[in-house]
Amino acid sequence: MATSDDQIQAESSINPSTYNQEADSAFDEEVASYTTSLATGITDYKFEHGRRYHAYKEGSYPYPNDEKEKDRLDIMHKLIEIRMDGKLHWAPISKNPSRILDIGTGTGIWAIEIGDEFPMADVLGNDLSPIQPRWVPPNVRFEVDDVEADWTYSQKFDYIHARCMGTAIKNWPRLVKQCFEFTKPGAYTEFVDLDLQWTSLDGSMKDDSASWKFISQFLKASNDWGIEPCAGPTLEGLVKEQGFEDVFHQRLPLPLGTWPADKKLKEIGAWNYLQISEGLEGFMYSLFTKHYGYAKEEVEVLCAQIRKEIKNPQIHILFYLHVCYGKKPEDK
């Protein structure tokens, strides 16, 4: 047990009067050391199979964060923008929100565009990887954070946005609960996510095809990893269970390829083909080599087979995007 003398000695060691200006340079050096250590911990990326992966909480997200993946994420943004009729959100948020949170912001493109739409709002985007641009609107900022850790924000938000988090989240009920807690009363949280179970309504994707082999193994490996790649269909139930009201949910088809006759669906299919084709190796390298023991070359052969199939206009693959939002009750 510490004595009173020990306490006095300890307290004197933190007395501001014991410091002088000569210590300033040492202090700056210490701060610089901690800052460098933090930055290194965030950007000391891991490289595997020629791809780059995040460093912060290494291994919690099994997909790359390199330039090729950033390109795919921006293509995905365009795809969802078209699918949502050119809108960044469907939730009827207020005309003058003051605080907006974008969970898992990726390249930051959604946060930047919402910042342009609401120039008076403070927009915060978070992600495990600091891959966002440095030059952004003055009301937009980004931080490295794990959304599955405890949230510590000092103020609540007028709107919370979470998109395509199905391949990243291990505890969806907890995520939705934290969204509810940090949404202002009367404000909205919106989830936009996928059901990655590929299907063909006419049976043109065969059970022995490369596409079926890929998606079956991908979904199983994801589930075994502890993540839910088909989060979309669960959103409505999760949002209602947490206490949101006026809950809206809609399922939207995403064709894969330009096979649809409908002009808009054909455009959506083209963008979807681009993002899938761009992302195949990234989806598979870490999961398939670790989970199934694939060699890198085996992954690449399977990717080539899939690309051939999804270019075939006789194979009509699609999956679904789900949009779900809810309002936090005024009295909560």
Structure write-up:
- The protein has 332 residues and is of the alpha/beta class.
- Helix content is 40%, strand content 20%.
- The chain contains nine helices and nine strands.
- The protein has helices at residues 4-13, 24-43, 67-83, 109-117, 172-181, 210-225, 235-242, 263-291, 296-310, and strands spanning 46-48, 51-53, 99-103, 122-127, 140-144, 157-163, 183-199, 245-255, 318-327.
- A seven-stranded mixed beta sheet has the order 5-4-3-6-7-9-8, sandwiched between helices. A two-stranded antiparallel ribbon has the order 1-2.
- α4 (109-117) links the parallel β3 (99-103) and β4.
- It is globular, with a radius of gyration of 23 Å.
Order of helices and strands: HHEEHEHEEEHEHHEHHE
Strand order of the largest sheet: 5-4-3-6-7-9-8
Given the C-alpha coordinates, what overall shape results? globular
Radius of gyration: 23 Å
- Low-confidence segments: 1-23, 30-40
Question: Oligomer, anyone?
Answer: single chain
How large is the share of residues in beta strands? 15-25%
Tell me how many strands there are.
9
The helix content is 40-55%
Alpha carbon gap, first and last residue: 45 Å
How does the major sheet shape up? 7 strands, mixed
Count of individual helical segments:
9
Mean pLDDT: 88
Q: Please identify the structural class as seen in this structure.
A: alpha/beta
